[in-house]
Amino acid sequence: REVVPSLFLSSSFNLQDPTTFYSVFTHITSSGISKRNAKPLQEKLFHYLEIIESDMSRQIARKSSAFFDTMMYLNAQMEQLKLNHKAVLTLRNGISNLKDEVVLKPMNILSLPRKKGNILSAMKKLENMRTVREVQSTIQLQLAHQEYASALDLISTTQDLLSSELSAIKGLRHLSSELQEHEKLIEKMIAAEFNKYIADDLNRPLSDLKDLLDEVILVFIS
Fold it and tell me: Residues near 22 by Cβ (< 8 Å), separated by ≥ 6?
């Protein structure tokens, strides 16, 4: 049985290499092409091709059983992989549900008192903000009725709120200076009332023994 030359089986076989090229196509030389030798060479190359194809067929036939066994094994592995994937998904869903029921819900329940406290604190702060915004109109009303003590108490309480619980509210920061102006105004009004009392008291007849002002008001403005 004729054997295919090792040249054709070499891993470095490359017809672009001149040495390899002339070794295969022996009818081509530096002096030209020999047509007489071309046909026998063509037949020889076809013969080599037939030998290689025949060997390949025998190799495939001999190893086909192992090949199909391997394919069947791979198919079985793929089916098992699908089952494993499905099992993993089921397990992950179970863990997720367990996390929701056993971990997250109890944590949410434990956080409810804190949330309630935050809500109550926010409500209290909102109530204080509403009260503070109404302070100026209340002060004006108290001054109209000469309730200086109540107005000063309200200013003091409001200033305490603005410097503590409501100190972070930027929209209320201007109220502190406005309340200070109200406080100065009240001081001027009290001083004016006191001066008026002194003037009236000094200018009344000595025979008039009636109290000029109510004793409570007199104590306050003095």
Answer: 28, 29
